Task: inverse folding
C-alpha cells in the first residue's frame, strides 16, 4: 500500500543509530590514544547497546508496561503493551555501565598522576 | 532457618554492605566478619553437597516466581562442587590475607568489602540459572576485580587494572549483545528454557550469538588472543587477589564458557573450537612464561597455560575428559594458590619480584621454600602429588580418542613448564642469598593457609578417592543436559534436546 | 602385614623420620635413614616372597605390586648397595648442613627404586619412576654447584624420558584397556606395525635416558659428579639400573613376542648406539683430571656395555648384561665411596693435586684396587666374568664389529683405571697431605664389603648365575643352563674361574712369599724424593709429580673424535628455542589498546569464518 | 696326592722352566744380533742368564712402600698364569705341557696378560719416579693402539674356526691340515703388525726408551725386583710367541718345531726394530689405527663374506 509506514522508518532509524553509536564507541576505543576518550568510547558503546535493547523491546504504538488504571484500560481496548523485560534489563545495564565508568575514570586519574601522561601507548611498563 | 543456595549470594552481599557499619563498632570486626561469613558458607556447602549427593540437583526459585519467569539458582553436583571449592578457597584466601602486611597498610575495610563482593559474584555466576543474572554477577565480579587489581596505590596496579577494565568492558558488551539477541530469538532468559527452545533458532543466528558469547567469556577465561590483561592483573594485584583470580574468577569464566557450550547451544564444532583454542592458549602461555624475570608474572602465564589444558579437556568432552578437566580445575585452584601464596613471600622484598635474587632462600625461608617446591612438583604433574592424577585422566581420555598428537603437545609443553619451575626450585636450594635480601616473616594466618593447601595437595595426591566421587557426579551432571533441563522445568518436552557428546 | 607394603612404608617413614630427627641432631638423621634402609633390607631378604600381591585401589586405577625372579635380583642389588651407601653416608655427610633434606631424598629415592621393582602395572611404575626423578634432582641441586644448570639438564632429560613413558602407556591402555605389564607383554605382538614402532621407540627413549645411552646421556657426567658421593654411589650404581631394568622388560619380554622388522632395527641401532656411547665415554673418562668426573664418564661407558648386551638379546648376552649390571653396581658404588672418602679426608678430588695416599689410607686403597681390577675386567675378579660373557656372546652372535668397539673401549678403560689409582694413591708424596688419616671404620667397612663381594662373585659366578637364570626364564628366555664356576659360550669354549683363581692365588702366594715379602724386611722405606734421577739430587721443593696432561699423547691421537661434545648441540638448540619463545611472547605488547584490538580482530575472524568453524 | 697331580705339578714346573729358558736365551740372541748389526762384538748369548741370576742373588736396600713389592709379584703371577693356559705343543700327547689348556680361552688370555702390565704399572707408580709414570702412560696408550688390529685378527680367526679357544683353533688347523696364516692371510698380516707393538721393540719402544726415560717403569727397580720383572718379561715373550705359533702356524708338534717357529716369528719384530727409529706415542697409535686396522677389517670381511 502507498501509505508510508512510519514505524518502519523509525525503527530503521533507531536501529541504525544504535549500531552507529556502537561503532563510534569502538572507533574511539581502538583509535583514540587519550585515556579519557577511550573511557568515553566505552560509555558510548554502552549507550548504543541500551538503545538497541529499547528498540527491540518496542512494539509499534504500544503503551508503557506500567501497572496503572489507564494502562489496564488501554490494554483492555487492545492496545499492545511493550515488552517490559528489556527495559528492566536496560535499567540494570545502565547502572552497571555507570559503575564501570566511575572506576575507569578514577583509574585514569591515578594513571595520569603517576605517568604524567594520559596517552595509552606511553603507559607500557608492564609487557611481555 | 533452612539452608538454601540463596545464602551463598545473600549472606556475603549483606556482609559486604554491613561492613562499614561494623567498622564503626570495632575495627577488628572488618577482618573477622568475612571469615565468619565464609565459614558459614562452608557449612552451607557441606550440608547442600550431602543433599545433592543424596537426592540430586536442588533448584531454588527466588521470590516465588517459578522458572521460566523468575530467577532461579541451580545447585547441581557440578555447580555445587564448584561453589564449594570456591568457598573453601575463599576461606584459605581470607586466612592468608588476614593481617597481610601490605593489605593492612592500606585500609583493610575496602579490601574485605571488595573481596566479599568478588566471592558473591563468582559463586553467583556458577549457581545462577538465568542468563541475565549471570551477566549481572559477571559484572559484579568484574568491577570488584578491577578495583582489587588497582588496590596498591602504585603505578603498575592502576595500569594493569585499566587494561583489565578495557578488555573486561568489551567482554560485558559482547555478552550483553549476545543475551539481547538470544532474547529476541527465544524470548526467555532462563537457561534451561533457552536450551529447550534452542533447536528452532535459525543456525546462522545461533552461531552469531555463540561467537559473541565465546569471545566475551573467552576474555574472562583467559583464552589466548583475549588474555592480554591477565598477566598484568595477576602480577600487579595483591597476592591474595592473585590467588583469588586463579581460584575463583578464572574458574567462573571457564564455567560460563562450558555452560554455554555444553548446555545452552547445540552447535557442531564448538568442542573442536575449545580444543584448538585451548591448545593455542597453552602453547603461547607456557612459551611466554619461560623467559619471565618476575616470579608472579611467570606464575600468571603458567596459570593461563593450565586453563588452556582445562579447555582442551572440556573440548574432548568424553566423561573421563570432563572428569579430568574438573579435577584439574580443582588442582589448579589449590596448587596455584599455594604457589602464589608462597611465591609472593619469596619475592616479597626482592626488586620488582625478580627470580634471579632468590638464590639460597631455601636455607633462609625453609618452610616457604618447601611449600613452593611442593607446589612446583605438583603443578607440573609429578606423582605422588595432586596434579598428577588430573593429568593422567586427561591424557587417558585423549588417548582413548586417538589424539596422540595432542598428548604429545601437552607433554612437550609441560617439559617447558618443568624447565621454568625447576629453575626456580633449583635456585632456591643453592648459592648464598644476595646482599640486602630481607626475608619477610609470613603471618600465622598465611602459614596456616599454606599448610592447609599443602595438606590437600598431599592427601589428594596419595589418596585421590577423597575427591573423585564428587568429581564423578559433577562430570555426569555437566554432561547430562536433559537432566539439567528437567530439574529446572519439570514439564518441558525434552524430545528436541540433542546431546552432541 | 604384607612385606612389600611394609618395605615401602618403612622407607617412607624412615625418610620422614630422618627429616624430622634432624632437629634433634644431624647425625641422628643419617643414622635413622641407615636404620630404615637396613630394616627394609632385612624385610626384603627374609620376609618378601613372590607369592604375595598388593592391590591398592586409587582413583579409578588399581595399583598392583608383586615380586618376581627378575625384580628380586635388582631388589637385592638395590637393598645391599643402598645399605652400604647409607652406612658410608653417616660419617661422610657429618657436618654438612641440611642433612634432613638430604636424607629425606636419599630414602625417598631408595623407596622409589624398590617401588619400581615391585610394580606390576604401569601406573605405579610411572609414579615411582617420577618420585625417583625428582628426589634425585633435589639431591643434585643440594651441593649447589654450577648454578643448578646441571639439575635443570637432568630434569629436562628425565622429563623427556618420563613423558615418553607416559605417552606410551596411555597409548597402550587405549589399545588393550589395561595397565598391567604382563598384558602388554602378551598383547604386544598383536599390535599393528606402526603401533609397535611407536611404542618401542617411546619406551626405549624412556629407559635410554636413565641408562644414559648415547644421544640422551649429556645429563649424566655432571649429575653424577656434582652430587654428594655417598648418594652418587647409588645414583650411578642403582638409579641407572632402573633404566636397565626397564630395558630388560622391553627388549627381552615385550619385544621377543613381536616378529616385526622395526623392532629388530631398534635392537641393532640400540646396540650400536650403546657401543659408541661406551667408546666415546671412555675416551672422555681418560682425559678427565677430576676423579669424580672420571668415574662418572666410566659409568656411562659401563652402562653402554650393559645396554649392548641386552640389545643383542641372546641368552649369553642377556646373562652377561645382567651380571655386568650387578657387578657395576658393586664396584662403581665402592669406587664412588672411595672418592668420597678421599674427598672427606683431603677436601679435593683433583687427581693432578692428589697423590701417594696409599700409605695414609691403605684400606681405602685396597678397596679401590680390587674395584678397579674388577672394573677393568681383569681376571680373577667379578668384572672379568661379565666382560668375557659379553665378548663371547658378541662373537657367537656375529656382531664382529661391535666387539671391536667393545674391546677398544675396555682397553682404553685400562688407561683411566691406572690413572685413577696412580693419581690418587700413588706417585709423589705431596706436602699438604702429610697428616691425612684413614677414614673411620663405618666408612671403611662398606668399601671392604663391596670389594669382598667382587672377589666372591669372581670366584663363584654361579652364585649369581642361579638367580639370573631363573630371572631370565621368568622373562621368557626358556631355561638357561649355568654352572657354579664354569663359563661357557655357544661354541662350547669355556673358562673355569675356579682354576683361574686357584692358579693365580697359588702362584702369587709362592712368588710373594719367596721373593717379594721376604726381603721387604731387609729394606727401609725412603721418601719418593729419593729416586733415581740420573745423578742429580732433587731439592725438597722440586716438583717431580707427573700428573698434568697424563695422557697427552693419547689425547692428541683421539683429538679428531673429541672435537665436538653432544651438549654443544643441545645447548645451541636450547638457546635457539628460547630465543624463538622470547620472540613469540612479544605479542604481549604492554599496550592495552593492542589487546583490545586483538579482541576485535579475533571476533571478526570468528564471524567471517563462522561457517567453516561451526555448523 | 695321587700320581696324576704330581705329574701335573711336574708338567707345570717343566713348562715354567722351558718358557724361562727359551725367553731368556732369545733375549740374549737378540742382544747378539743387534750388536752384530751395529758392528759390535756384543755379549755372549747366555749373558742374560747371568744377569738374572746375579740380580736374584742381590737384595735391594730401599723401598717406596708395599705396592712396589707387590708389583713384580703381580707381573710374575700374571705371566706364569697365562703360561698355564697356553698349549705349548699341539697333539696334547706330552702330558707335561698341557697344564690348564682347556680351562681358558683367547679372550681370557688377553685379559690375563694385561694383569701383569697393570701390576708392573702399579709397582712403578708407587716409586714416584716421573720416568716410570711417563713410561706407563706411554705404554698403556700404545696398548690401546695395537689392541685394535690384534683383536680384529683374532676375531677373524674365531669367526673362521667357530671357536674362541686356542686348542679349538689348533684342532681346526690340524683337521684341515693347514695353517691359519694361509687360511686368512690378511688377519695374519694385521696380527703381525700388531705384534711389532706388542714386543716394545723400536719403533715402538717409547715405553722403556732407555736413553730417554732411563728404561721407564723399571727405573726404580733393582736386585730381586728387576730380576722378577725380567723373568716375567721373558716368560711373556715366550707366551706371546707360543700363542702366535699356536693360532697362526698350527702349533708345534714337538719342541724343535716350537723353537724354530717361535724363533722365526721372533725375528720379525727384532729385525724390523733394529733398523728403524723411534715413533712418538701418538704417531704409533695413529700407525696402528691406520693400515693394520684397515687390513684387519678387510680380514674379518674376507672371512665373513668369502669363507
Result:
Amino acid at each position: 500500500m502507498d501509505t508510508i509506514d512510519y514505524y518502519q522508518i523509525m525503527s530503521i532509524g533507531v536501529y541504525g543509530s544504535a549500531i552507529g553509536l556502537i561503532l563510534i564507541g569502538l572507533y574511539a576505543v581502538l583509535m583514540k590514544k587519550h585515556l579519557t576518550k577511550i573511557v568515553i568510547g566505552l560509555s558510548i558503546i554502552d549507550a548504543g547497546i541500551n538503545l538497541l535493547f529499547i528498540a527491540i523491546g518496542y512494539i509499534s504504538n504500544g503503551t508503557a508496561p506500567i501497572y496503572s488504571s489507564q494502562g489496564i484500560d488501554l490494554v483492555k481496548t487492545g492496545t499492545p503493551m511493550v515488552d517490559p523485560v528489556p527495559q528492566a534489563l536496560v535499567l540494570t545495564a545502565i547502572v552497571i555501565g555507570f559503575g564501570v565508568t566511575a572506576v575507569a575514570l578514577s583509574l585514569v586519574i591515578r594513571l595520569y598522576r603517576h605517568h604524567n601522561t594520559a596517552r595509552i601507548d606511553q603507559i607500557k611498563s608492564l609487557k611481555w | 532457618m533452612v539452608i538454601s543456595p540463596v545464602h551463598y549470594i545473600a549472606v556475603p552481599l549483606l556482609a559486604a554492605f554491613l561492613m562499614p557499619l561494623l567498622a564503626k563498632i570495632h575495627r577488628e570486626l572488618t577482618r573477622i566478619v568475612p571469615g565468619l561469613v565464609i565459614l558459614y558458607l562452608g557449612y552451607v556447602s557441606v550440608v547442600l553437597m550431602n543433599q545433592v549427593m543424596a537426592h540430586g540437583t536442588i533448584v531454588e526459585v527466588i521470590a516465588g516466581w517459578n522458572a521460566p519467569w523468575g530467577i532461579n539458582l541451580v545447585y547441581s553436583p557440578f555447580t555445587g562442587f564448584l561453589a564449594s571449592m570456591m568457598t573453601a578457597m575463599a576461606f584459605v584466601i581470607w586466612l592468608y590475607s588476614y593481617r597481610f602486611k601490605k593489605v593492612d597498610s592500606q585500609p583493610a575495610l575496602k579490601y574485605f568489602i571488595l573481596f566479599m563482593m568478588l566471592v558473591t559474584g563468582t559463586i553467583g555466576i556458577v549457581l545462577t540459572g538465568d542468563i541475565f543474572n549471570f551477566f549481572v554477577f559477571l559484572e559484579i565480579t568484574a568491577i570488584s576485580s578491577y578495583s582489587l587489581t588497582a588496590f596498591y596505590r602504585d603505578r603498575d596496579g592502576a595500569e594493569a587494572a585499566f587494561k583489565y577494565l578495557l578488555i573486561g568492558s568489551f567482554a560485558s558488551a559482547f555478552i550483553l549483545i549476545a543475551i539481547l539477541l538470544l532474547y529476541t530469538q527465544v524470548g526467555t532468559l532462563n537457561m534451561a528454557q533457552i536450551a529447550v527452545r534452542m533447536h528452532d533458532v535459525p543456525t546462522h543466528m545461533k552461531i552469531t550469538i555463540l561467537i559473541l558469547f565465546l569471545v566475551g567469556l573467552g576474555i574472562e577465561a583467559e583464552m589466548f588472543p583475549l588474555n592480554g590483561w591477565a598477566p598484568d592483573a595477576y602480577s600487579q594485584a595483591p597476592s591474595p587477589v592473585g590467588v583469588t583470580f586463579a581460584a575463583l574468577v578464572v574458574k567462573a569464566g571457564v564455567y560460563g564458557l562450558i555452560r554455554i557450550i555444553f548446555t545452552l547451544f547445540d552447535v557442531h564444532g564448538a568442542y573442536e573450537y575449545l580444543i584448538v583454542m585451548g591448545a593455542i592458549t597453552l602453547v603461547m602461555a607456557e612459551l611466554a612464561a619461560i623467559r619471565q624475570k618476575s616470579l608472579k608474572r611467570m606464575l600468571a602465564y603458567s596459570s593461563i597455560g593450565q586453563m588452556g589444558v582445562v579447555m582442551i579437556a572440556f573440548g574432548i568432552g568424553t566423561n573421563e575428559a570432563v572428569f579430568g578437566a574438573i579435577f584439574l580445575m580443582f588442582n589448579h585452584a589449590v596448587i596455584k594458590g599455594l604457589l602464589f601464596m608462597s611465591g609472593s613471600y619469596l619475592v616479597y622484598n626482592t626488586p620488582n619480584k625478580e627470580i634471579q635474587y632468590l638464590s639460597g632462600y631455601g636455607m633462609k625461608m625453609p618452610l616457604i621454600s618447601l611449600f613452593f617446591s611442593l607446589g612446583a612438583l605438583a603443578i607440573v604433574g609429578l606423582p605422588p602429588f595432586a596434579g598428577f592424577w588430573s593429568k593422567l585422566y586427561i591424557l587417558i581420555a585423549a588417548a582413548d580418542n586417538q589424539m596422540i598428537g595432542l598428548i604429545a603437545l601437552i607433554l612437550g609443553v609441560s617439559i617447558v613448564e618443568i624447565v621454568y619451575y625447576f629453575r626456580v626450585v633449583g635456585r632456591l636450594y643453592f648459592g648464598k642469598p644476595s646482599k640486602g635480601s630481607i626475608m619477610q616473616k609470613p603471618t600465622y594466618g598465611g602459614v596456616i593457609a599454606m599448610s592447609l593447601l599443602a595438606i590437600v595437595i598431599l592427601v589428594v595426591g596419595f589418596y585421590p578417592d577423597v575427591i573423585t566421587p564428587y568429581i564423578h557426579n559433577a562430570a555426569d551432571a555437566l554432561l547430562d543436559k536433559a537432566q539439567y533441563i528437567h530439574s529446572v522445568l519439570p514439564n518441558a518436552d525434552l524430545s528436541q534436546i540433542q546431546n552432541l557428546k | 602385614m604384607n612385606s612389600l607394603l611394609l618395605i615401602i612404608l618403612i622407607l617412607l617413614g624412615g625418610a620422614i623420620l630422618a627429616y624430622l630427627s634432624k632437629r634433634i641432631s644431624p647425625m641422628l638423621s643419617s643414622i635413622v635413614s641407615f636404620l630404615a634402609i637396613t630394616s627394609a633390607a632385612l624385610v626384603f631378604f627374609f620376609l618378601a616372597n613372590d607369592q604375595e600381591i598388593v592391590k591398592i585401589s586409587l582413583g579409578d586405577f588399581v595399583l598392583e605390586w608383586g615380586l618376581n625372579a627378575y625384580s628380586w635380583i635388582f631388589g637385592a642389588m638395590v637393598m645391599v648397595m643402598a645399605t652400604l651407601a647409607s652406612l658410608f653416608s653417616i660419617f661422610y655427610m657429618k657436618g654438612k648442613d641440611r642433612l634432613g633434606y638430604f636424607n629425606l631424598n636419599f630414602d625417598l629415592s631408595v623407596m622409589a627404586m624398590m617401588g619400581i621393582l615391585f610394580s606390576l602395572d604401569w601406573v605405579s611404575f610411572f609414579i615411582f619412576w617420577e618420585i625417583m626423578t625428582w628426589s634425585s634432582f633435589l639431591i643434585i641441586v643440594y651441593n649447589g654447584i654450577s648454578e643448578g644448570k646441571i639439575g635443570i639438564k637432568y630434569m629436562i632429560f628425565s622429563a623427556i624420558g618420563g613423558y615418553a613413558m607416559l605417552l606410551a602407556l596411555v597409548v597402550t591402555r587405549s589399545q588393550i584397556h589395561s595397565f598391567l605389564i604382563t598384558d602388554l607383554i602378551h598383547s604386544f605382538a598383536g599390535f599393528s606395525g606402526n603401533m609397535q614402532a611407536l611404542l618401542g621407540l617411546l619406551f626405549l627413549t624412556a629407559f635410554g635416558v636413565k641408562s644414559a645411552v648415547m644421544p640422551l646421556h649429556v645429563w649424566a657426567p655432571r649429575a653424577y659428579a656434582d652430587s654428594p658421593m655417598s648418594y652418587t654411589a647409588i645414583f650411578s650404581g642403582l638409579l641407572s639400573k632402573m633404566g636397565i631394568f626397564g630395558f630388560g622388560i622391553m627388549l627381552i619380554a615385550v619385544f621377543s613376542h613381536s616378529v616385526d622388522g622395526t623392532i629388530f632395527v631398534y635392537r641393532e641401532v640400540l646396540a650400536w648406539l650403546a657401543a659408541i656411547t661406551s667408546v666415546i665415554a671412555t675416551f672422555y673418562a681418560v682425559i678427565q683430571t677430576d676423579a669424580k668426573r672420571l668415574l662418572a664418564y666410566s659409568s656411562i661407558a659401563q652402562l653402554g656395555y650393559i645396554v649392548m648386551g641386552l640389545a643383542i638379546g641372546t641368552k649369553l648376552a642377556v646373562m652377561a648384561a645382567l651380571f655386568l649390571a650387578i657387578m657395576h653396581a658393586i664396584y662403581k658404588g665402592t669406587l664412588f665411596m672411595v672418592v668420597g672418602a678421599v674427598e672427606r679426608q683431603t677436601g679435593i678430588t683433583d687427581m693432578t693435586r692428589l697423590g701417594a695416599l696409599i700409605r695414609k689410607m691403605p684400606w681405602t686403597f685396597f678397596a679401590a684396587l680390587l674395584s678397579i681390577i674388577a672394573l677393568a675386567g681383569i681376571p680373577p675378579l667379578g668384572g672379568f666374568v661379565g666382560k668375557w660373557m659379553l665378548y663371547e656372546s658378541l662373537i657367537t652372535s656375529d656382531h664382529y664389529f661391535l666387539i671391536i668397539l667393545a674391546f677398544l673401549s675396555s682397553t682404553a678403560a685400562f688407561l683411566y683405571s691406572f690413572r685413577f689409582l696412580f693419581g690418587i694413591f700413588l706417585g709423589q708424596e705431596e706436602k699438604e697431605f702429610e697428616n691425612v688419616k684413614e677414614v673411620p671404620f663405618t666408612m671403611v667397612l662398606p668399601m671392604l664389603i663391596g670389594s669382598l663381594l667382587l672377589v666372591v662373585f669372581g670366584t663363584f659366578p654361579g652364585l649369581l648365575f642361579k638367580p639370573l637364570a631363573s630371572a631370565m626364564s621368568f622373562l621368557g628366555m626358556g631355561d638357561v643352563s649355568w654352572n657354579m664356576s664354569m663359563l661357557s659360550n655357544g661354541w662350547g669354549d669355556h673358562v673355569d674361574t675356579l682354576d683361574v683363581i686357584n692358579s693365580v692365588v697359588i702362584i702369587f702366594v709362592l712368588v710373594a712369599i719367596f721373593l717379594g715379602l721376604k726381603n721387604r724386611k731387609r729394606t727401609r722405606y725412603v721418601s719418593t724424593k729419593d729416586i733415581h734421577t740420573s745423578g742429580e739430587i732433587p731439592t725438597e721443593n722440586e716438583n717431580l709429580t707427573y700428573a698434568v696432561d697424563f695422557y697427552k699423547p693419547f689425547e692428541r691421537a683421539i683429538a679428531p673424535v673429541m672435537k665436538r661434545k653432544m651438549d654443544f648441540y643441545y645447548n645451541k638448540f636450547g638457546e635457539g628455542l628460547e630465543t624463538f619463545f622470547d620472540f613469540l611472547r612479544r605479542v604481549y605488547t604492554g599496550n592495552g589498546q593492542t589487546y583490545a584490538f586483538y579482541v576485535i580482530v579475533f571476533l571478526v575472524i570468528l564471524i567471517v569464518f563462522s561457517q567453516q568453524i561451526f555448523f | 696326592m695321587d700320581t696324576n697331580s704330581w705329574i701335573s705339578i711336574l708338567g707345570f714346573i717343566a713348562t715354567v722352566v722351558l718358557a724361562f729358558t727359551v725367553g731368556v736365551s732369545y733375549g740374549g740372541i737378540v742382544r747378539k744380533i743387534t750388536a752384530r748389526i751395529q758392528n759390535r762384538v756384543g755379549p755372549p748369548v747366555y749373558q742374560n742368564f747371568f744377569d738374572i741370576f746375579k740380580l736374584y742373588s742381590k737384595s735391594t736396600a730401599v723401598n717406596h712402600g708395599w705396592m712396589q713389592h707387590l708389583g713384580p709379584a703381580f707381573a710374575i703371577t700374571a705371566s706364569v698364569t697365562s703360561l698355564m693356559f697356553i698349549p705349548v705343543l699341539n697333539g696334547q700327547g706330552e702330558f707335561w705341557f698341557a697344564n690348564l689348556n682347556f680351562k681358558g680361552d683367547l679372550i681370557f688370555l688377553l685379559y690375563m696378560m694385561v694383569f701383569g702390565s697393570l701390576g708392573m704399572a702399579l709397582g712403578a707408580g708407587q716409586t714416584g719416579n716421573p720416568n716410570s709414570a711417563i713410561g706407563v702412560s706411554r705404554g698403556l696408550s700404545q696398548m690401546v693402539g695395537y689392541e685394535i688390529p690384534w683383536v680384529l685378527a683374532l676375531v677373524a680367526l674365531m669367526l673362521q674356526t667357530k671357536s674362541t679357544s686356542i686348542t679349538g683353533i689348533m684342532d681346526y688347523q690340524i683337521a684341515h691340515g693347514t695353517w691359519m696364516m694361509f687360511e686368512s692371510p690378511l688377519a695374519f698380516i694385521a696380527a703381525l703388525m700388531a705384534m711389532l707393538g706388542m714386543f716394545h721393540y723400536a719403533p715402538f719402544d717409547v715405553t722403556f726408551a732407555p736413553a730417554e726415560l732411563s728404561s721407564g717403569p723399571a727405573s726404580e727397580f733393582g736386585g730381586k725386583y728387576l730380576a722378577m720383572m725380567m723373568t716375567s718379561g721373558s716368560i711373556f715373550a715366550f707366551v706371546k710367541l707360543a700363542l702366535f705359533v699356536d693360532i697362526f702356524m698350527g702349533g708345534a708338534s714337538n719342541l724343535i718345531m716350537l723353537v724354530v717357529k717361535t724363533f722365526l716369528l721372533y725375528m720379525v719384530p727384532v729385525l724390523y726394530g733394529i733398523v728403524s727409529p723411534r715413533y712418538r706415542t701418538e704417531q704409533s697409535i695413529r700407525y696402528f689405527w691406520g693400515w693394520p686396522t684397515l687390513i684387519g677389517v678387510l680380514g674379518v670381511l674376507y672371512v665373513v663374506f668369502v669363507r
In short: Residues 1-122 of chain C form one domain. The radius of gyration of chain C is 26 Å. The mean pLDDT of chain C is 86. The beta strands of chain C are 53-58, 61-66, 486-488, 494-496, 524-525.
